[in-house]
Amino acid sequence: MPKRKDIKSILIIGAGPIVIGQACEFDYSGSQACKILREEGYRIILVNSNPATIMTDPDFADATYIEPITPNIVEKIILKEKPNALLPTMGGQTALNTAMTLAENGFLKKHNVELIGASLEAIKKAEDRDLFKSAMKKIGLSTPKGILAINKEEAYGALKEIGLPLIIRPSFTLGGTGGGIAYNKDEFEKIVTNGLNASPVNSILIEESIVGWKEYEMEVVRDKADNVIIICSIENLDPMGVHTGDSITIAPAMTLTDKEYQVMRNASIAILREIGVETGGSNVQFAINPENGRMVVIEMNPRVSRSSALASKATGFPIAKVAARLSVGYTLDEIKNDITQTTPASFEPTLDYIVTKIPRFAFEKFKGADNSLTSAMKSVGETMAIGRSFQESIQKALRSIETDLDGFNEIDIPGYDKNKEKETIYAALTKPTPERILYIAQAYREGLNTKEIHSLSKIDPWFLEQIKQIVEIENSLIKHGKPKNYDELFLLKSKGFSDRRIAKLLKTKSKDIKKLRDKYKITPIYKRIDSCAGEFESKTPYLYSTYEKNEDDFSDETNISERKKIIILGGGPNRIGQGIEFDYCCVHAAFALSSQNYETIMINCNPETVSTDYDTSHRLYFEPLTDEDVIEIVSAENKKGKLLGCIVQFGGQTPLKLCKSLEKANIPIIGTSPDMIDLAEDRERFQKLLKNLKLKQPANGICFNSKEAKIIADKIGYPVLVRPSYVLGGRAMEIIYDPKNLENYIDQIVSFFGQNPILIDRFLSDAIEVDVDVIADGKISHLAGIMEHIEEAGVHSGDSACALPPHSLSKKIINEIERQSKILAKALKVIGLMNIQFAVKGLDTKKPTIYILEVNPRASRTIPFVAKATGNQFAGIASKIMAGDSLKKYKIKSWDNKNKTSVKEAVFPFGRFPGVDTILGPEMKSTGEAMGLAKTFGEAFAKSQLAVGSNLPLNGTLFVSVKDSDKSKIIPLCKKMISLGFNIIATRGTSEFLINNNIEAKKINKVSEGRPHLVDSIKNGLVQIIFNTTEGKQSIEESFSLRRAAITAGVPYYTTVAGSNAAVEAIIAINKNELTVKAIQSY
Predict the structure, then answer these.
(1) Collapsing DSSP states into helix, strand and coil, what is residue 251?
(2) Residue 624: pLDDT band with limits 50, 70, 90
(3) Burial letters for 334-360: b for 16+ Cβ neighbours within 10 Å, e otherwise?
(4) Strand runs (DSSP E) across 793-881, as ranges?
(5) DSSP label of 998
(6) Backbone Cα Rg of the chain
(7) 368, 840, 1041, 1054 — which has fewest CB within 10 A?
(8) Are 379 and 20 in contact (CB under 8 A)?
C-alpha cells in the first residue's frame, strides 16, 4: 500500500524532559520519526519541552514548539497549525496520555485530527489493565490473577481475595511509577496510596505475585496488511520482581527451548492482532514459571518503548523509522532494510552474536535511598555490549557501565566474615540490587555452588554456570600465572577479559598484557551488525569487536576506507551529571564534520541515544569507552586513510579520562589541548593562572586528609564547599558548616575516592551564580550565552533553573563577565567550546564582586539549551573550528535577544526515592530539564514550571518560612501574593515579622511544636505553594518532613528568595494573560 496522500501535516508529540522510566530512547525514536516523515514530504509539527534533545533542533521539524506537553498547550498548537494527523507513539507515556485526553474529550474529532500509529481503542485496550486482561482471556492467554481497583476499599477487597504477597501496577504510568511489591499490610497500604495517586485515571491492578518467575520480552512490528515480524526476543537475567528497565537483559533469549520460543512468538502475534496494533512497534512482556512452564502475559506497550531502542541497536532494525512509515500507510514489504539495502523490512532479523544490557544507577546521589530493585524503575541510564558469546558480551558490558569495573571484579559482601556462617552471602544473593551480579561471582569464590545460588537468587542456572566458568578461569590464571602461549591468552580475550582485568588478577600492569598480546599478534577483529546473521552483505559499517581467529581474512569486516577521518568519543551510559546533552554535542559533531567531507567515526556504548544510530556517522563502533577498546579501534582505522584525531571534549568526563592514555599512544586530540583541559582541572595550576590574569576566585585550598582540611577551613572560614577533584555533576560535593562534619566528610571521601586531591572553597552565601558558554578558535572568542541562575550559588548548575538573557544583572556586570570570559578563553587557548561558572556577590551594594568558581574548556550540559535559546548551532560550529575553521567564517546571532526569554528548569527523581531529602545543594540530582520560551521572564518561567509538572496555583494559601537574612526580601513578594488573592500562613518567627510589617499572616506550628502542624495542612490540601529558605544543618534537618510532604502532595516548593520571586512573576504572568504558543522557527 503506498503512502497516504490525504495527509499533508503531522503533529508529533515528544516525551518531554528525561525522567526515570522515560529517557533519551524517545529522543532517538522521535528524531527518527521526524526525519523520515519529512523525507516522505509531510509537513512536521513537533511539540517537546526538552531542549537537550536533538529532535527539538529547528532542522528536524517544519514547526518546533518547545512548550509544555499538556492537553491545554497541545490544543493551542493544533488550533494554530491545523495538522491532519497526530502521531502519539514516539513520545513514551507522556505523548500517549496527552493524545488520549485530546481524543477522549472530543477535541481531535472536532478539529479533524486523525490519530495515526495507534488507534484510541488499541491504546485503551493495552493500557487499561482491566480491558487488557479481558482481551487476553478472549484469545486464550493467561495473565496473573488480578483485580482492578479505583479506591482503597476495592484494593482491600482484592487483598482479601488474592492474599499477600501482591504486585500493584498503576494504569497509564511510566517505568512502574507508583507501583511495587507488597509483602505485608503496611507495604500494601503505602503502595496502594502511591499507585492511586500516580495513575492519571486513579486505577491500579492488584495481582498475584509471580516474583521469581523468568521474564521475557518480545519486540514486535505489525502493519495494516497483517504482516507481523518479531524483531528480537529479550531475556531478563533478573527474575520477575525487578522492573525490566532495572534488570540485566540479554538478546536473543538464551534459555528458551525452540518450542517455548514458538509458543511465545505466536502469543505475541495474537496479542498485537487482538489489541489492534497495525501501524508500528510494540513490546510484549511474558513470565514463565520455571517449576511447571506456565506462561502468563504481563503487559504490552502499544507504542515504541524503552526496549524498542535496545532492540533496534541490538539488531540493526530501525523500529521507530519503520513504525513512522507504517503509520502513513506503507506495509513492511514496501520498506527497504537500510543495513543490507537489498532485503525488505518484512525480513525478520536474525542474530549471530549476543547482546547484553546493564542498567546504570545513581543511588550514591541520594543519601538514605533504598538500593533494592523492585517493580518500580530506578535506573538512570544503561549500556549495551555485543560479543560472540554471553561471557564476552557481559564482561564488555560490565566495563562499559563506568563504575570502575573491568569485569567480575572482587567485591566485599556487606557484613561477611570468612570465619563465620554464610548468612550474609545468602542475604546479598536474595535481595535484588545493582551489585548482585558481582555478589554471585563472589559467592562462587567463597565456595557456594550453582544450586545454592539459584535457590537464593532465582536466576536461571544457565547464566550462573556461565559466571562460574569465568570465576574458574580467573582462579586458574591466578594459580598458573601469566599465559604461556598464544592459545592461553587468546582464550582469555575471547571470553571478554580486558587487559586490565587480566593484569589485576596477575598483580601486574595492563601495559604488560598489551605487550604480551603484541608478541602473540592477538588483536580484536570487527564484525558488522547486519540484521541477517551474515546471510546478506551489510552495506552499513555498524561494528563490534570480538576475538576470533582470522586465518582466511574473511572474519574481519571493518573494510577501512582511504578517507580523511575524525573519531568522536561518546559519553557512555546516561547518568546524573552526564546525560543526553553530551550526546547532542557528539551528534552535531558528526553532522557538521560529515558536511565538510570528513569521514566521521563514532565510538559509544549507549543504546538509548541518537549517536549510536547507524546513520548518524559514517562508521559506528558499539564498544566500551576504555583506553584498551578505543586504542584498538584507532589502530584498526589507522591502517588506511588519514586520521586527523579524536574529539574528546563533547562526551563529558568519560572521554576526557582517556586523554592521557591516548596521548601516550600518540593519538592526536583535536581542539583545546588536553594540557589546557588539565590546567583548568588542576587546582594549583589554575589558581596560578587566575593570579597572573588578575581574576578572583573564592579563598580555597587543597588537602589530602582531614587534618589538612581543618587547617584550610579555619583559615578561609566556614561554611566551606568541599569536593573531590576530577568528577562530574558535583559528585560528592557538599557544603560543610563545622569542623566535626568536615572531618567525617573527608574520611569518607578518602576511603571512596582514594588519594585524589580534595578541593576546599569558601562558600559564597547569598551570591548569584552565572553560567557562560564561550566558543573560540584559539585566537578570537565569542560569548555563546550568559545564563543567570535563579537559585543562589550553592545549588549545582545542573539543578538550578536559569534564564537567558539574565533578568536581573546590570549591563556593567554583564560587560565585566564578558571581558573576563574572553581573557580566560585566550589564556587557555580554547579551540572549540568552554563553560565558565561565575558568582556575583553583593549585587545590592555599589561594588559587586565577581568570582570565578569553575572553568571547563569543553562542551557543557548547557550547550543545547543555549543553542535553542539563541538560534546558533554551537556544537556543530565548534566541531568545524576544531577541525581547522576560523570563527570569523560564522555569523553568530547575539545571545541578548530582547524579544524572547528562555528559562531552563530541572526535573528531579525524588518521587522514586521515598525518604530522601529533596533539598538542593552542590551535588547534582536532576535527571533532565525542560525549557520555557516566551517574550517575558514571568511567562517563560511559568512554562518551565508547567513543563516539569509543577502546576503554579492562581489562588489559595501560601506558606512562608524564611531565614532571618531573607525576611526583609520576602516582604514585597508577600504583598504581591496577597494582591493576587492568596492567604498567608507562616511559622512563628516569620509570621511575627510579617505582621510587624503590616502583612496579614496566620501562624502555623512547625512539626516540632505540636499538632495540627504544617505537614498536616499540606497533607490535607490546605497549602497550595511554599516559600521556605533555611540555613545551617539543624534548620535543614528540621524542615525535611515539610519538603517530603510537599513533593508527595505535588505542592510547588521554592527554597530560595530568587526562586520564590520567579514563581510570583510567573503567577502574575499567567493571571495577566493565558500562556501563548510560538514555534522556535518564528522567533
Answers:
(1) strand
(2) very high
(3) bbebbbbeebebbbbbebebbbbbbbb
(4) 802-804, 831-841, 849-856
(5) T
(6) 28
(7) 368
(8) yes
